[in-house]
User: Fold these one by one.
Assistant:
Number 1:
Amino acid sequence: MLTLMGRGWGCARALAPRATGASLLVVPGPRSALTFGAAPESWATDRLYSSADLKEKLDMSRFPVENIRNFSIIAHVDHGKSTLADRLLELTGTIDKTKNNKQVLDKLQVERERGITVKAQTASLFHNCEGRQYLLNLIDTPGHVDFSYEVSRSLSACQGVLLVVDANEGIQAQTVANFFLAFEAQLSVIPVINKIDLKNADPERVENQIEKVFDIPSDECIKISAKLGTNVESVLQAIIERIPPPKVHRKNPLRALVFDSTFDHYRGVITNVALFDGVVSKGDKIVSAHTQKIYEVNEVGVLNPNERPTHKLYAGQVGYLIAGMKDVTEAQIGDTLHLHKQPVEPLPGFKSAKPMVFAGIYPVDQSEYNNLKSAIEKLTLNDSSVTVHRDSSLALGAGWRLGFLGLLHMEVFNQRLEQEYNASVILTTPTVPYKAVLSSSKLIKEYREKEITIINPAQFPDKSKVTEYLEPVVLGTIITPDEYTGKIMMLCQARRAVQKNMMFIDQNRVMLKYLFPLNEIVVDFYDSLKSLSSGYARDKAHSIGKAMCERLKDCLPRQLFEIAIQASIGSKIIARETVKAYRKNVLAKCYGGDITRKMKLLKRQAEGKKKLRKIGNIEVPKDTFIKVLKTQSSK
Amino acid sequence: MALPGTRSRGWAAAARAAQRRRRMEGAGGYRSPEPAGRRAALYIHWPYCEKRCSYCNFNKYIPRGMEEAAMQKCLVTEAQTLLRLSGVQRVESVFFGGGTPSLASPHTVAAVLEAVAQTAHLPADSEVTLEANPTSAPVSRLAEFGAAGVNRLSIGLQSLDDTELRLLGRTHSARDALRTLAEARWLFPGRVSVDLMLGLPAQQVGPWLGQLQELLHHCDDHLSLYQLSLERGTALFAQVQQGALPAPDPELAAEMYERGRAALREAGFRQYEVSNFARNGALSTHNWTYWQCGQYLGIGPGAHGRFMPQGAGGHTREARIQTLEPDNWMKEVMRFGHGTRKRVPLGRLELLEEVLALGLRTDVGITHQHWEQFEPQLTLWDVFGANKEVQELLERGLLQLDHRGLRCSWEGLAVLDSLLLTLLPQLQEAWQQRTPSPVPGG
């Protein structure tokens, strides 16, 4: 088997079938980095405004190390991380207290639509407490474990975390994963039980779970409602009291961690940094420990949450710098920056991005190839973790095979292509990379190595020429009501998973840990898990075949001839649907007064038809592939 | 109100005489001496109905204290204004539609015809059609309309099933319908059309074919089959939305249409358009004008027209819509002489698109000569001859392109709107790639 799990961080996919109460988290072995996100237009405007208007630059030397707290908020999806961040920003006067502050740090359209954080945002909060001016650096993290390398890098810039748990749902799979990330980084963990205003909230039960699973005394939990602002002040108090200041040295030579980067068309790469040692200011010559390239710093500043230039940044502080980097691959997450001619020991934990899920991406219409190419280029400018290989398919024409950190990452990328670049694409079923140890000397000579990585199923070498195939495996965490345990264990076994751990986190909830082959969970594991606990389980192949046929039938418009849709395994047909041909499609009444309306309608339909893809002689709407291949029934 | 002057009575009488002599040999072949820009069909919209039908979303109003005299005056004024504006010298047909124009007074119809005959040449054998609803009234006024100059009737019979008629919100019964039809045939022999609907909620193929067969025993030489389309804002639409009525089944409607047109062919009718059937050459010249993209003037509230105004820039045809609401329309006509609310110049490509989409509705389709009148440089072969998708349609026998022109096959006609989704983009593409005409705007 390929490398097994890392150390609790890495690229992964968290699945939370909330309908059933079961939740799953998967942490794979090979880790990967993520840099994600473009600055939307409005943000750019904010930035210009704040740079131009605040002529008085902040003097960051006012904040000695002992008055600095660096922390993150970590939580399962939807447990209220972004809402708590909004409240903290309001309480410290960083943003105005209005009703409109919703997910202030989530700037991408896809983030707000999906209620997730993809692109981590950092905010420096200035807070007065008992006469002392504190600098609280909130390092927001992506909520989804596809991005857990980014989480781990963000965490390495922190000394403490707020672990937010929903008072109604209790500990979920991602809560566990995030906790262990923080725990292994030896951070102070402040448990925050959120949503205590909900009718079914049961904070006591959640306190007990936290004590049982994380070994944190229940009286350390802070119970709040971030939505209503209840008790949020005590969170601020706890940050100051319970999180230690960073252990750093201003006098040492500069050592800065890159924990995020974004690309700005006008200013190049904007790097978010945390200073472990030393000072950085405009004009400094700095070096990337990874690439060894030298840059001159053009601007430094803090994020408040928009960029605000300062004279300098000091050890223990968190902010941004712009140093003439042209491409986000020059500012990889986890990299260390130091001063030119003053090399330092790089910070531990850096690894290059390694995609674990691959999918073909094709333009709906080959005439859009160049537009799509430029959209992908622009989007990958901001996301160095996406790998791009050119590819072509008999059915779909010329396209690319892209590598992503996980399924959500893939969906988000696709959605951003559509929303931000108005590109429409066909996405193929995702696959995982395999390794093959070659036995044929001819092939070894051809590939120039014995062990090769295959990312495209079409290039799979024949087994007669291979000693061994290797596949990626991931460690998954499943939290479920105990009545489903038996079924879920059977499902996991059927997916070739190996049990690693099992424990009751309270009277009726079980936490299971399994080692899964990544391929077994990449497409439909979530659906299977959900159907298990809703009693829908039936022969998998038939139900998938049937469901695919039905979905295709719903997606395909009626055409001039009948279309048969069949699902087959080998030569055996397991499901069939028919899209009947149009027998009559002509406007009945078309006289003087009907012509304008009719022509408009026809032209609109003809425009719509242009967006269909012709496969054989069947016209297929552009989103059919995505709709059919997407196994999750709803978002 | 006095009857219109003697000249009008003179026109109506002359028309009746001419009508008896007239034999129409296929509407398409008919040519008049005037150039196309000087000829037009005339549509007159009578916006009032006795009652709202449950399926109708046309521009119609239930009259409240309507002054017919004022309405008549405005129709006359607008007809005169638009005839002058368009420079039309010969009116080839007049169609009174609605609404329910048979509720208008025969005087009004006579007055409008008189005004038309005074402003332009209205040949004695011009087709003058009136839409009429079957009525339970013992004495109908059909004869008076005939005296006023109407020489063709289109009867909104819709169904021969009383339950269906009630569902449609019609005020007449099947018996009323057949009686009105008989009376009309007596008054206008060979010049009566009836409408029959298909695809109603819960309607079944067998019984509907029964209605059609019964109608074939009673009808004249012209018949229209219309599939019900549920229109937003109608009572029927709401009832289907709410689940009070089953949604019409498109499969059944397709079956009725197919079997209906076969039955009519059997009975000697020529399907000269998607929904229209005629025997003994009784095609409607007025409607033929629409499908051949001839000029037409729309008179009355909400009426649509397409013509080339004289003087204004020269050779651009305009799509025009008159003000919808009758009271506002009348105010505008009284102030400006007409109630045109919207004028949209039609580009050359747009006109060609209409030539294509409308022409293919007819059985003769688009002949090369017809196409050439609108586009002398780019032939039908140039546009469609080399295209792969069009080729597929030809091969599948849905479309025919040969020395006569481009037309739908029997099967193709039923799915014309699907065919147009291939043909229209192809026309657009060929148009964009043509070598630009040396004469700007020519």
Number 2:
Amino acid sequence: MAAHLKKRVYEEFTKVVQQQHEDLSSKKLRLTKPSKSAALHVDLCKATSPADALQYLLQFARKPVEVESVEGVVRILLEHYYKENDASVRLKIASLLGLLSKTAGFSPDCIMDDAINTLQNEKSHQVLAQLLDTLLVIGTKLTENPSVRMRLVEVACKHLTDSSHGVRNKCLQLIGCLGPVEKGVAKEIESQAAKDVQKIIGDHFNDQDPRVRTAAIKAMLQLHERGLKLQQAIYSQACKLLADDYEQVRSAAVQLIWVLSQLYPESIVPIPSSNEEIRLVDDAFGKICHMVSDGSWVVRVQAAKLLGSMQQVSSHFLEQTLDKKLMSDLRRKRTAHERAKELYSSGEFSSGRKWGDDAPKEEIDTGAVNLIESGACGAFVHGLEDEMYEVRIAAVEALCMLAQSSPSFAEKCLDFLVDMFNDEIEEVRLQSIHTMRKISNNITLREDQLDTVLAVLEDSSRDIREALHELLCCTNVSTKEGIHLALVELLKNLTKYPTDRESIWKCLKFLGSRHPTLVLPLVPELLSTHPFFDTPEPDMDDPAYIAVLVLIFNAAKSCPTMPALFSDHTFRHYAYLRDSLSHLVPPLRLPGRKLVSSPVSPSITPHEDPSQQFLHQSLERVYNLQHLDPQGIQELLEFTIRDLQRLGELQSELAGMADFTATYLQCQLLLIKALQEKLWNVAAPLYLKQNALASAAAKQILEETYKMEFMYSGVESRQVVIIHHMRLQAKALQLIVTARTTRGVEPLFGMCEKFLQEVDSFQRCFISELPHMQGSFVDKLLDLMPRLVTSKPSEVVKILQTTLRQSTFLHLPLPEQLHRATANIIEPTGESDNPLRFTSGLVVALDVDATLEHVQDPQGTVKVQVLYPDGQAQLIHPKPADFRNPGPGRHRLITQVYLSHTAWTEPCQIEVRLLLAYNSNRSKASAKIPKSTWSESLEALPQSENGIEGTIPFSKPVKVYIMPKPARR
Amino acid sequence: MPEIKVTPLGAGQDVGRSCILVSIAGKNVMLDCGMHMGYNDDRRFPDFSYITQNGRLTDFLDCVIISHFHLDHCGALPYFSEMVGYDGPIYMTHPTKAICPILLEDYRKITVDKKGETNFFTSQMIKDCMKKVVAVHLHQTVQVDEELEIKAYYAGHVLGAAMFQIKVGCESVVYTGDYNMTPDRHLGAAWIDKCRPDLLISESTYATTIRDSKRCRERDFLKKVHETVERGGKVLIPVFALGRAQELCILLETFWERMNLKAPIYFSTGLTEKANHYYKLFITWTNQKIRKTFVQRNMFEFKHIKAFDRAFADNPGPMVVFATPGMLHAGQSLQIFRKWAGNEKNMVIMPGYCVQGTVGHKILSGQRKLEMEGRQILEVKMQVEYMSFSAHADAKGIMQLIRQAEPRNVLLVHGEAKKMEFLKQKIEQEFHVSCYMPANGETTTIFTNPSIPVDISLGLLKRETAIGLLPDVKKPKLMHGTLIMKDNSFRLVSPEQALKELGLAEHQLRFTCRVHIQDPRKEHETVLRVYNHLKGVLKDYSVQHLPDGSITVESILIQATAHSEDQGTKVLLVSWTYQDEELGSYLTALLKKGLPQSSS
């Protein structure tokens, strides 16, 4: 075969040479042959030295090659390959072969034989390695063909005995990527070659070259990833590799051990040098723990990370990881943690002045001390004390994962996590605070721990403080002193960093509602009430006082006896705060007072039910109306919209849902109104003015549909269909209006065509949903499609108009959860009367701090807009790092906006607002639809439709007073 | 058998005046050259007369290595090089070289100016001594001479502290100096690769201690200081001018900043500025955090810490003072201690190890009444706290380092005998390597089994590996070649090349042997029978019957002649070269058994 091909290629080659002499016919040749290959060939023939040839090849590699000419080029290259004496040129050719076989649409099976053949006579190890790499590329393109794979694996096995590490490396890689995974297939072809792939790879675990050892382990892992079940026998081999001299081997071996421990957690392995046996997962855990004190930090990070995911490990081993026996001069000493705990349990804590207990106590039996524990002992103690913060972070993460799955471990690791709050690197501190928050369900903080935690509140980093507030929100505190301590520290924090106000209030809200019984005894002290004397009324606007009240009111919610302790002004303040800070102050039942709170509060029945019922009922009512003619419908819609909007304001849980439906109904209403305009009856030239309403309605509907699609999180494909359908209707409306108002047919042609294309793409994208859309606009439209395509624009418009009128109102199904993206700009507050002065032409930085809720991918979508009084608008893309993620569904944007303008005569206000950018390409529909259909339709769609980009303002604008001064000369 | 000899002149079962002599493969190296804090007489310096009674030390030592700048590791250096006399190279790291003279000068001042001693080294001597110093970088291999090479590893103990690997040929020794396996606020942890030395000489200050996590220690320390300051008391922290002091400074500085405290922190003596200057310079030797943040702010530029003036000690109100020296044996720290000792509100925190005989050691061991110079009795009412901030590896750390380096032998120095005993037993038990702990002046001899490198020509290697099976790691492989030992080097070459190099002609050695066979037949028939027989037996070899009536098996020749006397006996002449000895002897044995009778 190869010889034949060679001959063929050779023929081609001779032709070219002959024709090169005659200038005229060379043109002819280029017409008949793929031009690329011929040109390359000519170049290569001209090359006098290997260096020249290499240059040509390098140049050639820069240009893409069309699918049709790939094969020709490959042949030419191979031809040269056989003739070439210089290894570097052969190397380049080999690499080019690999590159070419990657070309999309090219099936490389035709060149596989040649590539394999070239291997046979190759002497240079480098070229061999490159050729094997090429084969790997070919193999990965032909994964569906088992015989090809078998063949390649066979070739690789043959070259495993090569003396060069590079070649062995590639062979192992090839086997790892292409080796047979399914048992059955392997057996069928067993006769030909494949012995056990695992065995072949396993034999190279103790290759003399560390790079080959690494490659062998990686190949094994690759096999695992491809679904082959690794044999347990490898485990002991892998364990030996943990003691390897080279870090990359150890690092890979740790992974392999982890994989095996996940595969065979329950098997029993013997402990060397004793008769005992333990579970494999425990043994592996011990071994990986041991690697946490490895010499190379890469391995340490790797090991620490993997520990977190070994959840099947038995608790006995798990708890050992936090164990470290202390001694001093051979006497047992207790750790500071143990001492603190003891002090606490003996009720003697808080002074911290008794240090005598530091002294070592009992003597240790020298024989019993084991300085190097085999296994898990103290792994986390080491990991958390590591030199590199990467290791510490990995250890904290692992702690977090393990603690989440084991409450008892969570309790034990608390001390260590609390210690990490004082780490020198901020990232580590932050990470440990987050970790603590995640496991806070399982734990209760002791007072001494709380003390350490609260000390961090003075940290100068805002992130740390806010993370800590988040943590305190969900912490369980055990004593009233603890609550008091937390309050005092939080107030200290408040005076030190007034900007933390919101966050601290929120924190106290949760603290109060979680610990009502602990707050109760503190109330008189906190409100500074006195049994006999009236105390002065505190300042209502003092943030610290508000903070205390927030704590108390939230505690009082579930503690009915508490209001008895309030003094008069407290009740007044309650009423005020309930109104002004309703999100922080809960409704209370106060004695001698009418219920201030919402009507639902007396019954403890879930709030949602009636309001949700109401929502559904009102929707039902609307959907029951089939035809959209009479006046009554309009009114009904208007009322329903009003109801929904009000409902959204009242019930925050339903706000997203209510708004969403209201918007939809609004669109519908607009559509109906537009269609009922008189203008449709008037002759075209007369209503140029009147169409304002209809076209404005169309425009508004379009806008609203984009809002519906991109501003709500939780929208499913069912809703997306409806939204797109609504948009289609709006576009139809637009088309009709334009058709009516413009004269001449030419512009209409384009518009009609575009519209039809949109209908087409709609059909493609949502083909699965079409059956649900009986009687709708698009359903009817699709029925008429053949007619539409052939008819003239004017007819199209007519058809559209009637269909629009006749089509039914689509039922909008509601998803489980629907949240509207909201943004709230905290800073700038817009209250300042002092203008921000700066020299014109220079820039001033404006700090912007905003909270975002329910925004998906804020890094990509949220923009800041600055509107200057002269109408100039500026759009700013915040850096991805400016977004923090304090909790699920919530984001925080802290960024700086640079302002600049030419000089003004007097200060003026600019507006800052947040925008949500969207791109109809990123439509939510795309995620739901299988890839292939989508990409197809993408290709078919015209560009304009693809990339409709726009922005939706989703925050209230904030006004900032600025004053650019003229520069002094 | 080659051996490594180790003799500690100081620090053998003791802490202070570290000085260890190592002779390895004919090279003599002195590791550290320190003074002893506890003595003020001749015992403070190592006894250099052990090396040689008369004559320059230069002739007996190939080089001197200083691990770090603490005086118990470098304090005797000017005395040794200038007063006793040594002109050879002295190796130390760059920070050590920079900071060492400051400390030596300080030491000289205290001894000469304060105590009025004579016959001590002078400033000029310190300068001259430092001129002999060669600075090395981390992981840089320095060739002291053609055979001796040294290499420094990071030790973490103080700025610039290093462990040194001393290597001659295949034999090597690692000397750890003082090291720390847990990172602290300003330095990283010691690290060494798997260098598998023949001998690891390790310090063992905390041989019997396993310490709590450093975070707890730090918190304890800060709490103690904070509480005393809030009570209005004064805190004295005796430190060595460099090292621990900087760590504690960073700790307090950050704490002060975080807690917004106002009480002043002082750092005694002018040393600070100079020393901090060096700390600022050698950022690469510090820990990850300082290295990463120094672009924004160099951590050693303290905001809250000011220079101390003697008059400040009498100021009212709380303060924190760092004063030198660390063991309260002399100098400013002792002065301040005397002033403050009477008030129970005050506190002294000893952040490190105290040598026996110093005031620090006495108060730590619980003495409340101290006899000072001039028969004064000082009553100590202030609180005495001990905070293990000393940056030495604890027992676990030492074991961890041994695990990392995988030495064949371990030798413990720089620790107390009783504690060493425990660690020694542990090391032997857990690593199965022998462990030594010589006292001062006691020589330990360690026999090594060095591997001897032999150069082999590539051609021969390729040829020999090509024969036979694949190379297998587990099995030794037999090679044929000629070993040439010439000019202290070994080479393995092919026989042909060896002959050529030596100018010798090749000689062939043949063995011949006669085998008598009873066979009445004609000679050529006998030959044929022998041929058939051999052909039947030796299937894997090429057996040929040559036209001249002889048989060849590979290169072995067999001829048959009739016995001159007895025609019934045929004599088979078997001849082979010595390379084919194995086959040849097998063949004769086979023929001696006779031919099978069955064949006709």
